[in-house]
Amino acid sequence: MTDLLTPEKIARDREFEREAIPWLDDVYRFALSLTHDAVDAEDVVQDTFLRAYKSWHTYVPGSDCRRWLFTICRNVFLRSLERRSPTLDLNDSEGEALANGAMLRDASVRASADDLVSRIDLGPAIQNALKQLPEPFQSTVVLVDVEDQPYETAATILGIPVGTVRSRLFRGRRLLQEMLMTYARDAGYAA
Protein backbone atom coordinates (compact mmCIF):
# COMPACT_ATOMS: atom_id res chain seq x y z
CA MET A 1 0.00 0.00 0.00
CA THR A 2 1.55 3.31 -1.11
CA ASP A 3 -0.84 5.63 0.78
CA LEU A 4 0.96 5.69 4.15
CA LEU A 5 -0.17 7.98 6.93
CA THR A 6 2.70 10.43 7.06
CA PRO A 7 2.76 13.30 9.57
CA GLU A 8 2.16 15.69 6.64
CA LYS A 9 -0.90 13.76 5.48
CA ILE A 10 -2.29 13.60 9.01
CA ALA A 11 -1.80 17.36 9.43
CA ARG A 12 -3.42 17.99 6.04
CA ASP A 13 -6.42 15.82 6.94
CA ARG A 14 -6.86 17.61 10.26
CA GLU A 15 -6.64 21.00 8.59
CA PHE A 16 -9.26 19.94 6.02
CA GLU A 17 -11.55 18.67 8.79
CA ARG A 18 -11.10 21.91 10.75
CA GLU A 19 -11.51 24.34 7.82
CA ALA A 20 -13.81 22.66 5.27
CA ILE A 21 -16.07 20.16 7.03
CA PRO A 22 -17.89 22.79 9.17
CA TRP A 23 -19.31 24.25 5.93
CA LEU A 24 -20.91 20.97 4.85
CA ASP A 25 -24.48 22.08 5.67
CA ASP A 26 -24.04 25.43 3.90
CA VAL A 27 -22.65 23.75 0.79
CA TYR A 28 -25.52 21.25 0.86
CA ARG A 29 -28.10 24.05 1.09
CA PHE A 30 -26.43 25.82 -1.83
CA ALA A 31 -26.30 22.60 -3.88
CA LEU A 32 -29.95 21.89 -3.10
CA SER A 33 -30.92 25.37 -4.27
CA LEU A 34 -29.14 24.66 -7.55
CA THR A 35 -30.33 21.09 -8.17
CA HIS A 36 -33.81 21.16 -6.56
CA ASP A 37 -33.33 17.50 -5.75
CA ALA A 38 -31.95 16.08 -2.51
CA VAL A 39 -30.21 13.11 -4.15
CA ASP A 40 -28.61 15.29 -6.84
CA ALA A 41 -27.57 17.81 -4.18
CA GLU A 42 -25.91 15.05 -2.16
CA ASP A 43 -24.01 13.96 -5.27
CA VAL A 44 -22.89 17.54 -5.95
CA VAL A 45 -21.79 17.97 -2.32
CA GLN A 46 -19.90 14.68 -2.35
CA ASP A 47 -18.12 15.65 -5.57
CA THR A 48 -17.47 19.14 -4.18
CA PHE A 49 -15.76 17.86 -1.05
CA LEU A 50 -13.86 15.21 -2.99
CA ARG A 51 -12.50 17.88 -5.35
CA ALA A 52 -11.81 20.21 -2.43
CA TYR A 53 -9.85 17.48 -0.64
CA LYS A 54 -7.86 16.62 -3.74
CA SER A 55 -7.12 20.33 -4.31
CA TRP A 56 -6.55 21.20 -0.67
CA HIS A 57 -2.97 22.17 -1.49
CA THR A 58 -4.39 25.13 -3.50
CA TYR A 59 -6.45 26.46 -0.58
CA VAL A 60 -4.88 29.46 1.12
CA PRO A 61 -5.13 28.98 4.92
CA GLY A 62 -6.96 31.85 6.58
CA SER A 63 -8.94 32.75 3.45
CA ASP A 64 -12.70 32.30 3.12
CA CYS A 65 -13.10 28.52 2.93
CA ARG A 66 -16.88 28.78 2.56
CA ARG A 67 -16.52 30.93 -0.57
CA TRP A 68 -13.90 28.55 -1.95
CA LEU A 69 -16.23 25.57 -1.40
CA PHE A 70 -19.21 27.44 -2.94
CA THR A 71 -17.11 28.11 -6.03
CA ILE A 72 -16.20 24.45 -6.33
CA CYS A 73 -19.83 23.45 -5.72
CA ARG A 74 -21.12 25.75 -8.44
CA ASN A 75 -18.52 24.48 -10.89
CA VAL A 76 -19.43 20.86 -10.10
CA PHE A 77 -23.11 21.68 -10.64
CA LEU A 78 -22.45 23.47 -13.94
CA ARG A 79 -20.38 20.54 -15.20
CA SER A 80 -23.24 18.20 -14.38
CA LEU A 81 -25.62 20.46 -16.33
CA GLU A 82 -23.31 20.49 -19.34
CA ARG A 83 -23.54 16.72 -19.44
CA ARG A 84 -27.34 16.77 -19.29
CA SER A 85 -28.77 19.71 -21.24
CA PRO A 86 -27.95 22.85 -23.21
CA THR A 87 -27.36 26.10 -21.34
CA LEU A 88 -29.49 29.24 -21.41
CA ASP A 89 -28.32 31.91 -23.86
CA LEU A 90 -28.37 35.15 -21.89
CA ASN A 91 -28.40 37.20 -25.08
CA ASP A 92 -31.68 35.64 -26.16
CA SER A 93 -34.28 38.31 -26.82
CA GLU A 94 -36.99 36.12 -25.29
CA GLY A 95 -35.10 35.96 -22.00
CA GLU A 96 -34.68 39.71 -22.08
CA ALA A 97 -38.38 40.19 -22.85
CA LEU A 98 -39.28 37.83 -20.00
CA ALA A 99 -37.05 39.70 -17.58
CA ASN A 100 -38.49 43.06 -18.63
CA GLY A 101 -42.12 41.87 -18.63
CA ALA A 102 -45.09 43.49 -16.96
CA MET A 103 -44.75 44.47 -13.30
CA LEU A 104 -47.23 45.48 -10.66
CA ARG A 105 -49.65 47.83 -12.42
CA ASP A 106 -52.39 48.52 -9.96
CA ALA A 107 -51.64 50.96 -7.13
CA SER A 108 -54.25 49.28 -4.94
CA VAL A 109 -52.37 45.98 -5.23
CA ARG A 110 -49.20 47.73 -4.03
CA ALA A 111 -51.02 49.39 -1.14
CA SER A 112 -52.48 46.12 0.06
CA ALA A 113 -49.26 44.11 -0.33
CA ASP A 114 -48.23 44.53 3.30
CA ASP A 115 -51.65 43.39 4.48
CA LEU A 116 -51.55 40.46 2.08
CA VAL A 117 -48.12 39.28 3.25
CA SER A 118 -49.29 39.26 6.84
CA ARG A 119 -52.23 36.95 5.96
CA ILE A 120 -50.62 34.31 3.75
CA ASP A 121 -47.57 32.06 3.90
CA LEU A 122 -45.45 32.87 0.86
CA GLY A 123 -42.64 30.44 1.73
CA PRO A 124 -43.76 27.59 -0.57
CA ALA A 125 -44.54 30.02 -3.40
CA ILE A 126 -41.12 31.66 -3.08
CA GLN A 127 -39.35 28.28 -3.03
CA ASN A 128 -41.28 27.16 -6.10
CA ALA A 129 -40.50 30.41 -7.92
CA LEU A 130 -36.80 30.05 -7.07
CA LYS A 131 -36.84 26.52 -8.52
CA GLN A 132 -38.33 27.81 -11.78
CA LEU A 133 -35.83 30.65 -12.13
CA PRO A 134 -33.36 30.06 -15.00
CA GLU A 135 -29.95 28.98 -13.71
CA PRO A 136 -27.80 32.08 -14.30
CA PHE A 137 -30.28 34.18 -12.36
CA GLN A 138 -31.01 31.51 -9.76
CA SER A 139 -27.41 31.13 -8.58
CA THR A 140 -27.04 34.87 -8.20
CA VAL A 141 -30.32 35.34 -6.31
CA VAL A 142 -29.59 32.40 -4.01
CA LEU A 143 -26.07 33.60 -3.19
CA VAL A 144 -27.01 37.23 -2.56
CA ASP A 145 -30.57 37.06 -1.23
CA VAL A 146 -30.71 33.62 0.43
CA GLU A 147 -27.10 33.01 1.49
CA ASP A 148 -26.59 36.74 2.23
CA GLN A 149 -23.30 36.98 0.34
CA PRO A 150 -22.01 40.43 -0.68
CA TYR A 151 -21.96 41.20 -4.42
CA GLU A 152 -18.17 40.93 -4.53
CA THR A 153 -18.20 37.47 -2.95
CA ALA A 154 -20.97 36.30 -5.27
CA ALA A 155 -18.95 37.59 -8.23
CA THR A 156 -15.92 35.59 -7.09
CA ILE A 157 -17.96 32.43 -6.52
CA LEU A 158 -19.72 32.74 -9.88
CA GLY A 159 -16.57 33.81 -11.72
CA ILE A 160 -18.22 36.91 -13.20
CA PRO A 161 -17.79 40.69 -12.82
CA VAL A 162 -19.69 42.50 -10.05
CA GLY A 163 -21.69 44.37 -12.70
CA THR A 164 -22.94 41.07 -14.08
CA VAL A 165 -23.96 40.02 -10.56
CA ARG A 166 -26.00 43.23 -10.25
CA SER A 167 -27.57 42.71 -13.67
CA ARG A 168 -28.47 39.07 -13.00
CA LEU A 169 -29.78 39.95 -9.56
CA PHE A 170 -32.01 42.67 -11.02
CA ARG A 171 -33.35 40.36 -13.72
CA GLY A 172 -33.72 37.42 -11.35
CA ARG A 173 -35.65 39.48 -8.83
CA ARG A 174 -37.87 40.77 -11.62
CA LEU A 175 -38.64 37.24 -12.78
CA LEU A 176 -39.39 36.17 -9.20
CA GLN A 177 -41.66 39.14 -8.78
CA GLU A 178 -43.59 38.22 -11.93
CA MET A 179 -43.91 34.57 -10.86
CA LEU A 180 -45.15 35.61 -7.44
CA MET A 181 -47.69 37.98 -8.98
CA THR A 182 -48.96 35.08 -11.09
CA TYR A 183 -49.20 33.00 -7.91
CA ALA A 184 -51.09 35.82 -6.17
CA ARG A 185 -53.53 36.13 -9.08
CA ASP A 186 -54.06 32.36 -9.25
CA ALA A 187 -54.64 32.23 -5.48
CA GLY A 188 -57.16 35.07 -5.71
CA TYR A 189 -55.07 37.61 -3.82
CA ALA A 190 -54.59 40.00 -6.74
CA ALA A 191 -56.66 41.19 -9.65
The helix-strand sequence is HHHHHHHHHHH
Shape: elongated
Number of strands: 0
Work out the helix count.
Answer: 11
Q: Estimate the helix proportion, in percent.
A: over 70%
Structural class computed from helices and strand pairing? mainly alpha
Low-confidence stretches: 102-111
Termini separation: 71 Å
Radius of gyration: 20 Å
Q: Strand share of the residues?
A: under 5%
Largest sheet: none
The average pLDDT value, as a whole number, equals 81
Descriptive account of the structure:
The protein is mostly helical. It is built from eleven helices and no strands. The chain has helices spanning 7-19, 24-35, 38-54, 65-84, 93-99, 107-111, 113-119, 123-132, 135-146, 151-158, 162-186.
Outline the secondary-structure elements.
Layout lengths: L6 H13 L4 H12 L2 H17 L10 H20 L8 H7 L7 H5 L1 H7 L3 H10 L2 H12 L4 H8 L3 H25 L5
Brief overview, please?
This protein is an all-alpha fold. The chain has eleven helices and no strands.
Main features:
191 residues; mainly alpha; 0% strand; elongated
